[in-house]
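JOB MANIFEST
job_type = single_chain_structure
chain_count = 1
residues = 256
[input]
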Amino acid sequence: MRRLFQSDGKVLIVAMDHAGSMGVLPGLEHPGKLIQNVVAGGADAILTTFGVITRFAEQLGNLGVILRADGGGTSLAKERGSMSLAYDALDALRIGADAVGVMASPGTCFEGETLPYLSALISQCREWALPVMAEALPGGFEDPANMWSPENIGFACRFAVEMGADLVKTQYTGDMESFRRIVDTTYTPIVVLGGGKIKNETDLLGVVHDAMRAGARGVAIGRNIYQHAHPDKITRAIHAIIHEDASVAQAKQALH
């Protein structure tokens, strides 16, 4: 966990695992260059794929590395089936990963297949002292408008830590009071995901700022970093909020 979290107990994770299921999204054309940019901006860790970890070790340098360990479907499929475990603890250790990341989505129509592999991986990783980050999203991505309520998000986060996750990645609820209640009842660190493309920089930095004030220990943001015109600068702005307690206005100075 110390390879991910800095001495202040906080972490800035850049999520760049999307090409494993969505193909070559804008911003992910050249992983090595992207990694160099986010390192320059102050990223602490990345969540990425087996291929990126093994092919871009030089660019990764001292970054903390979280291996996306599950998958099983792509955006080309006409019907999306259940995700499955693609890699295990030994695979992660062989390539030098510091942690593994998997979905933890109670409420999906496939929870009977996905939740058992979550607990099985956690059990195996415990044997090797390898941290597990669970992406706790109620209902997965099937019906966010109805499923991602504060109550359901809190349910998913607590479920993930009850299964044994060391770190939880989840959706910010949209207000500090409800999110603080989730933090208070989830007894491991929580990082906030970036989700889809946020319409402007001020909104993005505002979400990060409010989530941190509500008790989040960091973020795991993908598209809102790698699809930005200057990934290094937006990473630097987010870094300022997380590690320097900057206001949104102060953080925006890094964008100039």
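[summary]
The longest strand covers residues 99-104.
Residues 111-127 form the longest helix (17 residues).
exit_status = 0
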